[in-house]
Amino acid sequence: MKKSIQMAGAYIGTVIGAGFASGQEVLQFFTSFGWLGFFGAILATLLFAFLGMNIIQIGSRLQTDSHKDVVYNICGKYLGLAVDFIITFFLFGVAVIMFAGAGSTFEQQFGIPSAVGSLIMVLLTIATCFFNVEKVLNIIGSITPALLVLVLLIAAYALFTMDTTFAELNKLAHGQQSAASNWFLSGLLYVSFNITCAIPMLAVMGGTTKNRKVAGMGGILGGIGLGLMLILINVGMYTRLDAVGSLDIPMLYLANEISPVVGIFMSIVLLAMIFNTAVGMLYGFAVRVMKPGTMKFKGLVTALGFAGFAASFVGFTKLVGTLYPITGYLGFALIAAVIVAWVRGKRKSNHEQLETKAS
Hints:
Elements: H1 2-15, H2 18-22, H3 24-29, H4 37-62, H5 67-110, H6 114-130, H7 133-141, H8 144-161, H9 166-173, H10 183-206, H11 212-239, H12 241-244, H13 250-258, H14 260-289, H15 295-311, H16 316-358
Helix pairs in contact: 1-10, 1-11, 4-10, 4-11, 5-6, 5-10, 5-14, 5-15, 5-16, 6-14, 6-15, 7-14, 8-11, 8-13, 8-14, 10-16, 13-14, 14-15
């Protein structure tokens, strides 16, 4: 059970980044649909648990140390090539969003110009990719429980301090920018781009154990944990939509309302999660192109970092609302492949059981 919980924590830590923890993703993918957004969050929870379980179990069966093995196993040669390209491209895209999110956090909380905040995060990310990435990510990843406590506190505060009727909140919600045309599609897209982002880590996690039950439970617990945080953040966004609807980092605003100390603590945790994701994404993209530890690798990381810094000027909110849905649509192929692999696995298991009984 301990191994499953560790896997669940790593799964949650991989998915949570600037968009998730800040509330901006939740605002566009769920809160903008009013009370129906909660059905989208429940759908996302079920899919996070199901897909996480299956991908980690495939990684366990293949004993893989790379997402390529899992992708080609479930997608085949040609579709696998396309999905691998999408994943690699998306790693860089998420790093750009993390840089933009860091800039927005520094500006909103500390009054530091967003360009300076983004540059600080870029330089830290590049420097970390030069050294022992795994140790740093493990340290930062241990902050995830603190984030869960903060999200619970902020959601409770938002619920008990709401001074707008649900009918008015629903009207406000429908005036927000939405990532999709309806709550069902939005829930699917949200899971799709997050799974596309998380599959490199999930595949490698699966390869660390030969026990498929342990691997599967890690995916299920991680999915439930993500869903719980998703629903709590949606509560905070929805019940205080009148105050946070136009902000880049809405959760930070609510944290500061509780107390300036809570606001500072939330900003530190948020920046740590952004840093965690930025390093993972930039490093993951670079190692797909070049062997780590070499001077060429360091040059590539530096070039990618500053290219990401330039791209981050598009703006955090706009990047979340544009790149994530596009990647979500592309990621549907991956979700479909996982479901087909699961059905085939079930059929094979049932066939083997029948043969065993017959003999």
